[in-house]
Amino acid sequence: MASSVVVVGAQWGDEGKGKVVDLVAEHADVVVRYAGGPNAGHTLVVGDQKVILRLVPSGILQPHTLCLMGEGMVIDPLVLVAEIAALEAKGISARGRLLLSPRAHVILPHHVVIDGLRESGAGAKAIGTTKRGIGPAYEDKAGRRGVRVLDLVDPALLRPRVEAQLAAWEPTAKALGGELPSLIVVLESVRAAAEVLAGLVGDTSERLDSELRRGKRALLEGAQGTLLDLDHGTYPYVTSSSAVAGGACTGAGIGPSRIGRVLGITKAYATRVGAGPFPTELHDATGETIRTNGGEFGSVTGRPRRTGWIDLPALRFAARVNGVDGWAVTKLDVLTGLPVVRVCTEYETASGLTRNLPADDLASVKPVFRDLEGWQESLGGARSLAELPANARALLALIEAETEVPIDLVSVGPKRDETIIVRPAFA
Ligand code: IMP
After folding, report:
1. What is the DSSP string of 40-91?
2. pTM
3. Sorting pLDDT into bands at 50, 70 and 90, what band is 339?
């Protein structure tokens, strides 16, 4: 039996991981976020309430789960403290259930300033980041001048580290025509938050290991998606962390032998926020319909998401680099009413047809589509595959056959119960 499950995005993020994690978390004892920071926006619908989580693991909505924030993450203390307070205002307490790795790195105000300056100065070359300071914080981590959570909560350690970071970023800020906050401003801005977070710091890797040893079930929650992964994504239009399932090991502090199952999340279509190649992108009324029906606007930035058809070469790639054991296909209901549903099965490239995602030249590939007949029936009430219209089933069958990965779950609406479970994650 799989006692730990990784939930990983198979596309460019926003696959609906929040809802899937929330559902799987019902059966988990521990939920761990292993990568990224407040660039994520996991939207959950609980009853009539919509909750957007940026840093706190989605398992927090399940009253019994222990939530761990692993060392692969970058934490903005101000965002985290505000998120905990917002959850408390909704009656959801994080106290005693949320543990923060001392090894996780910290996003400070100057990281946010640099991210913003770079994006606004880059013109057409902008990545379209979320401007949350993610890239600069991970750069400091790789540059071995990062501020870790353990430094944040100790003023004696924090001061010299912030001083070193500001000195390192100063020339960049100047070259971009901007100004960094002073040392005192940075220290003062995080002082109160650091005091709150000090009470949450603990060895998350050790805790996860001991829970697994006691036979507990852990859910490792990915953020962003495979095609935004620093190593495997559409570089340089990527985020700066290991979003793939392998990142769950380094980012949560456990070995690969502890991973029981990998659940890959894909929408029944595709979206992307920010710049970068997107072979199946739609620039027409159908793309607009999908955006409207799917509510495809960034949960962090509010930006309209780019929309397109599902891309099987990309999903085959995601299945491979993550070792996906099963798919969760989300937002199938959004396609209801379209006369035709298109599926990209391969790409036409300068050197011929390919079923794989090339490392280069993704901007110039031409998608080859198979057209399926659409369906008009509303899907929200379906609780088994048999209750879906035949044309919707045909789409799912094509995804399964072409990626050689079975479908474990289908989401047919935003609510928790609008879900078809084919195979439970911890089965
Ligand atoms: P960053 O992570 O803010 O540095 O942004 C890098 C790229 O990743 C940009 O294209 C962002 O739009 C994208 N990105 C980052 N986080 C998410 C996410 O949670 N969902 C979708 N796209 C994201």
Report:
1. --EEEEETTEEEEESSS-GGGGSTT-EEEE-TTBEE-HHHHHHHHHHHHHTT
2. 0.96
3. very high
